[in-house]
Amino acid sequence: MSTEKYVGTSVPDVLAVNKVTGASVYADDVSLPGMLYGVLVRSPHPHAKVTSINISEALKVPGVEAVVTYKDFPELKFGTYVRDQTAFTDHPRYVGDPIAGVAANSIAAAQEAAEKVKIEYEVLEYILNPEEAMKPDAMLLHPDLEHYDRVKYPGFYNLMKGTNCPNQFRLRKGDVEKGFAESDIVTENRISVPPIYHGNLETHACVCKFDPNGKLTVYSCTQGPHLLRDTLSHSLGIPMHMIR
Question: Is the pTM here over 0.90, yes or no?
Answer without folding.
Answer: no
